[in-house]
């Protein structure tokens, strides 16, 4: 029993103190597991991953934009970097592309909780494979004292390719700019 407790405590402390989140994923769908590690630093976080095909350690630039809580998850060979901050969340979804032999950013989801009255709350989703952008935002009507759903936004945007190797603050800024440009005027 003491051994189990000690192992659990060690795992918890190493993640908490050294700020690391590790996950295994079969990026290349070759039956061999690849590793991805989210490393937290004083400046922000960066991701390191290894592909079974090349055996190299790939490292993203340090990302200073984002939330207080960043984590990794995997679903159907899609790696998601989640970034939670005080009034919202970002989800960056990556998948290996066999043609380009690179891990590509395929989706960006954003949730906003708005201010205390939830003005500006809502969500957006940008599919970078198809260029499809969909958003649903809310505005607080002070006269009615009610939260009003604004008309949904649905746009087809040019397809833009971002790789995990060059995923950076600049990438996040570009993605946020797309959403801000399409944001209803009353929320800007």
Question: Can you put this structure into words, describing what you see?
Answer:
The protein is of the alpha+beta class. The chain has one domain (2-187). It is 16% helix and 44% strand. The chain has helices at residues 2-18, 169-182, and strands spanning 20-25, 34-40, 45-50, 57-59, 69-75, 78-85, 88-97, 102-112, 122-127, 132-141, 146-149, 153-156. Strands 5, 6, 7, 8, 9, 10, 11 and 12 form an eight-stranded antiparallel β-sheet that branches. Strands 1-2-3-4 form a four-stranded antiparallel β-sheet. It is elongated, with a radius of gyration of 19 Å. The N and C termini lie far apart (56 Å).
In short:
The protein is of the alpha+beta class and 188 residues long.
Shape: elongated
Number of domains: 1
Q: Which structural class best describes the helix and strand composition?
A: alpha+beta
Order of helices and strands: HEEEEEEEEEEEEH
Helical fraction equals 10-25%
Q: How many helical stretches?
A: 2
Low-confidence stretches: 3-18
Distance between the termini: 56 Å
Estimated share of beta-strand residues: 35-45%
Q: Over all CA atoms, what is the radius of gyration?
A: 19 Å
Q: What profile does the largest beta sheet have? A: 8 strands, antiparallel
How many β-strand runs? 12
Mean pLDDT value: 88
């Amino acid at each position: 029993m003491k051994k189990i407790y000690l192992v659990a405590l060690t795992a918890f402390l190493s993640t908490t103190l050294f700020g690391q989140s590790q996950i295994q994923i079969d990026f290349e769908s070759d039956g061999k597991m690849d590793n991805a590690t989210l490393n937290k630093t004083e400046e922000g976080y960066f991701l390191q991953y290894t592909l079974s095909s090349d055996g190299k350690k790939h490292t993203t630039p340090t990302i200073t934009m984002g939330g207080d809580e960043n984590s990794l998850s995997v679903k159907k060979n899609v790696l998601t970097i989640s970034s939670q901050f005080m009034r919202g969340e970002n989800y960056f979804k990556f998948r290996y592309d066999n043609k380009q032999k690179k891990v590509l950013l395929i989706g960006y989801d954003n949730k906003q909780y708005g201010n205390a009255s939830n003005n500006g709350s809502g969500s957006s989703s940008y599919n970078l494979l198809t260029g499809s952008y969909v958003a649903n935002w809310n505005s607080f009507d002070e006269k009615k004292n009610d939260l009003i759903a604004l008309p949904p936004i649905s746009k087809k945007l040019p397809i833009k390719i971002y790789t995990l190797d060059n995923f950076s603050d600049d990438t996040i800024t570009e993605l946020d700019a797309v959403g801000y440009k399409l944001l209803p005027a009353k929320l800007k």
